[in-house]
Specification:
It comes from Caulobacter segnis. The longest helix has 27 residues. Helices cover about 45% and strands about 15% of the residues. Strands 1-2-3-5-4 form a 5-stranded antiparallel beta sheet, sandwiched between helices. It has a two-stranded antiparallel ribbon with strand order 6-9. It folds into 2 domains: about 100 residues, Phosphorylase Kinase, domain 1, CATH 3.30.200.20; about 210 residues, Aminoglycoside phosphotransferase (APH), C-terminal lobe (Aminoglycoside 3'-phosphotransferase, Chain: A, domain 2). It is of the alpha+beta class. Helix 5 runs parallel beside helix 9, helix 6 runs antiparallel to helix 9 and helix 7 crosses helix 9. The protein has 11 helices and 9 strands.
């Protein structure tokens, strides 16, 4: 498919002043999704998010039209997101895709937690993340696209089933499954919209303005608001700044206060531990994909080795409990 040519034809539908598109370049994307940056000839910077022809979505991934609907709902609720411009139709010749405004900032977690350019905004990021999540969690679920509902025990059971299917034998992961099963909180009285992958690395951070965009909504679902807060605190997303539990840049108290003080630290730490366990299982799955020859990229092999990091994190969490 000639994506650049299709975008050029689509340009007049994206902006009244545009007659064409230019500078189309693929930024990233694996087997399931691609991200393209491009500019309209009236100067509008945009992003195309599309599923390649023939690519199968992950079992838990939303259709891209549903993802776009959620971003629009978050935008209407005042959460910082890149505004959706257009959801592609079949005659756009881009397949399953949508177009959104392009934000200018940084998403690389290591830079966000260490570079001097972000020193001025880092102290407020944890509370800002709490505030933004509170807005997302307050979005009325009526009228949202069809979403799955999950809770603590459901997530535990799903990831244990994936773990068993691999035939893995990891004593620390085995212990973590039993420990978390024994302390799992009940489902929330009212499931809320959960982003599902809210973490450092999926946030656009501006060196002057701070958090300006929440990205990657493909894992959104209904569930426990503490899930998003706990995932944000998983050690793997601190990029070496392990003393700052929230994304490598802040503390629990600021995150919880930003959310409104309505969620206990105990509940957040449960979801943090479950997040470390889930990431450990996902790392095993990525290595298995590499070892079986389904994906021979070095990235898959390297990520697979990170299971041991999650095991260290889980031992520390279990010892501290």
């Amino acid at each position: 498919m000639d994506v650049a040519a299709a975008l050029d034809r689509l340009a007049p539908r994206l902006s009244p002043a545009a007659t064409g598109a230019r500078n189309a370049r693929r930024l990233s994307g694996g087997a399931s999704l691609e991200t393209w940056a491009f500019d309209l000839d009236d100067g509008t910077p945009l992003i195309l998010r599309r599923r390649p022809d023939g690519a199968l979505p992950r079992d838990t991934a939303l259709p891209l039209a549903s993802e776009a609907d959620l971003i629009r709902a978050a935008d209407a609720a005042g959460a910082p997101v890149p505004s959706v411009v257009h959801v592609c139709a079949p005659d756009d010749a881009l397949g399953e895709a949508y177009v959104m405004h392009r934000l200018e900032g940084e998403t690389l977690g290591r830079r966000i937690v260490r570079d001097e350019a972000f020193a001025g905004v880092r102290p407020d990021l944890a509370s800002r993340c709490g505030e933004v999540l509170a807005r997302i969690h307050a979005i009325p679920v009526e009228g949202l696209p069809s979403l799955t509902t999950s809770d603590a025990r459901g997530e535990l059971a799903r990831y244990e089933a994936l773990y068993r299917q691999m035939g893995a034998q990891r004593p620390i992961l085995e212990a973590a499954f039993r420990w978390l099963e024994s302390i799992a909180p009940p489902p929330p009285e009212r499931p809320v919209l959960v982003h599902g992958d809210f973490r450092n690395g999926n946030l656009m951070i501006h060196p002057k303005l701070g958090l300006i965009g929440v990205l990657d909504w493909e894992l959104a679902h209904l569930g426990d608001p503490a899930e998003d807060l706990g995932w944000m605190c998983v050690n793997s997303w601190r990029f070496g700044e392990w003393r700052n539990p929230v994304g490598g840049f802040g503390g629990y108290a600021d995150l919880l206060a930003g959310h409104g003080g309505d969620i206990t630290l105990e509940r957040v730490k449960f979801w943090q531990a479950l997040g470390s366990l889930k990431w450990g299982v996902m790392c095993l799955m990525m290595y298995q994909s590499f070892a079986a020859g389904a994906d021979r990229s070095i990235e898959r092999a390297m990520i697979g080795r990170r299971t041991s990091e999650t095991e260290i994190d889980l031992v520390a969490l279990m010892e501290a409990a």
